[in-house]
Write a structure and sequence with these properties.
Number of helices: 20
Number of domains: 2
CATH class of the largest domain: Alpha Beta
Number of strands: 5
Structural class: mainly alpha
CATH topology of the largest domain: Rossmann fold
Distance between the termini: 38 Å
Strand order of the largest sheet: 2-1-3-4-5
CATH architecture of the largest domain: 3-Layer(aba) Sandwich
Radius of gyration: 25 Å
Strand content: 5-15%
CATH superfamily of the largest domain: SGNH hydrolase
Length: about 525
């Protein structure tokens, strides 16, 4: 409603024309449902909207928004003497409601014409953590999105389960590239397989991230929420972005493998650096061996319940794995008003982390490494964003992040009530629990590290606060590293900085985990070029 109202102002047109304009910005698979919604909502808007109605009031008057009596949740500033009210509170609107078939109180927006199709599409995509297209069942796919090779190395033969990134070569890959790293064939004179010559002594390994939306690299483009930047071009990548669950694992700190294409660079900004890219540059035999097993909203309990099971590694047929366990916020984050009571306890954190380690012990090859990552100190978000203007308020400079946070908390839908909050006491309590959970993970490492046969276990501090402190010490503002729409995640620049900091720590503290630099990297590059690329 805010975008519709602002677009109407910018183009000096009615709300109906503004909504139609927004629909026409969308790709066809979204444009058509949007137009069906317009056909439904248009007559309602014409009948009941008056000049001076704010977006919040419009949403309430037509029945799509509703807040309980005694509180008023509004994102945009209300005009003098205005208040939010549902159409059922106005006898005049009640009469019109019967004729116009307006939404009832409590009606789900996904039940409305047009919107239902979009919701069904979203539910289909977000329902699974494994590739939608995977004929041989090795959890690697030749398809890019839908948990395909945006998330884990591209399968170069989807009809052979033994052929996938990270596999130990079959017969030295003389004829077939069984591990999809682009290296195959043999020397003409001695008949020695190139895989054996270049990789056998290099100790190849892959990298996997078990994480949440931070590791999945959740990103909503600013250009979709700033009415002054809306355009057809900025919405062109919407289907691709949607099929990746609004995440950008292909550009993330853990498993990023590419810079944004020309189309994607319209809505995401900055270069890509990642642990995977650095691992590949260190040893080109590691090409394509990455798995991003991260899910928006993941916490320690859901990792145990479902998420960890989507990791794939053959204990005897595949190379070792570096596993980054990075649940850095959701165990203290929720949208519940009694947020402290709904946080994971240190006892449960230890229990769930131990269960995941036991699962890894039974499912990853010997010689692997596992790192438990501590939680972040999210107070940095409010401290650095509170007075800045959110993209939705860019037209009139009327919505700050502090207001944005309070609005979501009022509706009880905040992704992190504890940190995204004007209440300093609550922010401090949330950080206190986060530190307790980090201490619980440290204790798990201290007490159990020697009990695993297939991997070495370490603890590493969460890198984001170090990244931000270094950035600010260089005289640069912290908000440059944070997502402008949700005000919670690291943006593309922040992801690259996190990759740098974590890699430097690996080099200094645990160089054995990343292996030695392959002396044959130049020969591999000269002979195999881009090793088949990623697409």
């Amino acid at each position: 409603m805010g975008l519709v109202e602002q677009t109407a102002v910018i183009h000096n047109e009615t709300l109906i024309n503004s909504l139609e304009r927004l629909c026409n910005y969308l790709p066809d698979q979204f444009k058509n449902p949007c137009m069906r919604f317009l056909e439904y909502i248009g007559p309602i808007l014409i009948e009941i909207i008056e000049d001076g109605d704010t977006p919040d009031l419009i949403c309430h008057k037509i029945g799509l928004c509703y807040t309980e009596k005694g509180r008023q949740c509004n994102l945009f500033p209300m005009k003098k003497n205005q208040r939010l009210y549902h159409y059922t509170e106005d006898p005049r609107l009640v009469k019109k409601a019967k004729r116009l078939d307006m939404p009832r109180i409590g009606a789900g927006i996904c039940d409305l014409p047009g919107i239902k199709e979009i919701c069904d599409w979203i539910n289909l995509i977000f329902s699974d953590h494994e590739p939608a297209i995977d004929l041989d069942g090795d959890k690697h796919s030749p398809y890019e999105t839908l948990r395909g090779y945006s998330w884990r190395g591209k399968d170069c033969d989807d009809e052979r389960r033994s052929t996938h990134p990270g596999a130990r070569p079959i017969d030295g890959d003389r004829e077939v590239d069984s591990n999809c790293n682009g290296i195959k064939g043999h020397t003409p004179a001695s008949n020695v397989p190139y895989e054996n010559m270049f990789c056998a002594q290099s100790q190849p390994r892959g990298i996997a991230v078990l994480g949440d939306s931070i590791s999945a690299h959740f990103h909503l483009p600013r250009e979709w929420f700033n009415s002054t930047e809306l355009s057809v071009a900025n919405f062109e990548p919407l289907p691709f972005i949607g099929e990746n669950e609004l995440d950008w694992p292909e550009l993330s700190y853990g498993t990023g493998f590419m810079n944004a294409t020309e189309e994607l660079s319209k809505v995401i900004h900055g270069h890509t650096d990642s642990l995977y890219l650095r691992l590949w540059q260190r040893n080109r035999c590691n090409f394509r061996d990455y798995q991003n097993i991260a899910v928006n909203g993941a916490r320690a309990s859901s990792m145990v319940d479902t998420i960890e099971k989507s990791l794939y590694r053959n204990m005897t047929g595949d190379y070792p794995l570096i596993v980054i366990y990075a649940l850095v916020g959701n165990d203290v984050c929720n949208g519940h008003p009694d947020t402290i009571a709904h946080m994971t306890t240190p006892q449960d954190m230890k229990k769930y982390a131990t269960m995941t380690l036991q699962y890894l012990e039974k499912n990853i090859p010997a010689g692997s490494y596992v790192f438990l990552t501590g939680l972040a100190d999210g107070r940095v978000l409010y401290d650095n964003l509170k007075s800045r203007i959110h993209p939705i308020g860019s037209l009139r400079n009327d919505v700050t992040y502090a207001h944005f946070y309070d609005y979501f908390n009022c509706l009880e839908i905040s992704p992190c009530t504890g940190w995204m909050n004007t209440n300093e006491t609550l922010r401090n309590l949330t950080t206190k629990r986060a530190m307790e959970l980090s201490a619980a993970l440290q204790e798990v490492v201290t007490t159990t590290a020697g009990s695993y046969k297939n991997f070495k276990l370490y603890y590493n501090e969460n890198p984001i606060n170090k990244v931000i402190n270094e950035w600010m010490a260089a005289g640069k503002p912290a908000y440059e590293l944070l997502e402008p729409v949700d005000g919670f995640h690291a943006n593309q620049r922040g992801n690259a900085e996190v990759a740098r900091v974590v890699w430097e720590e690996l080099l200094q503290k645990w160089p054995e985990a990343i292996g030695k630099e392959n002396p044959f990297n130049d020969e591999i590059r000269d002979m195999f070029g881009d090793q088949g690329g990623y697409r």
